[in-house]
UniProtKB/TrEMBL annotation:
Keywords: DNA-binding. The keyword DNA-binding applies. PROSITE patterns: HTH_CROC1. Residues 15-62 form the HTH cro/C1-type domain. Coiled coil: none annotated. This is XRE family transcriptional regulator. Pfam families: HTH_3. The lineage of its organism: Bacteria, Pseudomonadati, Bacteroidota, Flavobacteriia, Flavobacteriales.
Length: 175
């Protein structure tokens, strides 16, 4: 049995249509039809995607056609036990085993200090003045400043007055 035929058998096993199977293993739909028709051979990435979606399929059968298509129940249990034994730490515990689930790693004394320390929102307002300053407010000028400005402008003569209209036209007047 060729690799293309084995992939067709995996599609039958999955009970998906070829397009659903392509979506399930996250490949283009056209690649399924090219592989099952024998036009193209599957890439390693394609085979890995099949294996990761269907872990019960044996590598030897998928790659070489050797043995059975599916893992039997007894070896799978033994392999899981072996994996669990390898996963047990033999040295120091990892970071997450040190965290206490109830307090998230905070000791009682640290928790007490955290509860007693003031937060920013607990600090009373230091200012007693309720005066609001608006950035768009003009600075107030005294009458003397205004009068001196008007008098100062009288020294200058008008050279030209230009009026701009809404329609884009303008008129210029020169005295």
């Amino acid at each position: 049995m060729s690799l293309n035929e084995r992939i067709s058998k995996v599609i039958e096993y999955s009970n998906f249509t070829p397009s659903e199977f392509a979506d399930e293993i996250d490949v283009q739909r056209s690649s399924i039809s090219h592989i099952t028709s024998g036009r193209n051979k599957p890439s390693l990435e394609f085979i890995i995607k099949i294996k990761s979606r269907f872990p019960e399929i044996l590598w030897d059968w998928l790659i070489n056609g050797d043995g059975e298509m599916l893992k039997s129940d007894e070896p799978a249990v033994e392999e899981e036990e072996i994996v669990e034994e390898k996963a047990k730490p033999t040295s120091l515990p990892d970071l997450f085993t040190l965290i206490d689930d109830d307090n998230f790693g905070v000791t009682e004394s640290e928790d007490r200090v955290l509860k007693q320390s003031p937060r920013e929102f607990d600090i009373p307002n230091q200012g007693t003045v309720d005066e609001k300053i608006n950035d768009s407010q003009r600075l107030e000028k005294t009458n003397e400043e205004i009068i001196s400005q008007v008098i100062g402008n009288q020294d200058h003569k008008i050279k030209r007055i230009v009026l701009f209209f809404e329609n884009g036209k303008f008129e210029s007047y020169e005295p």
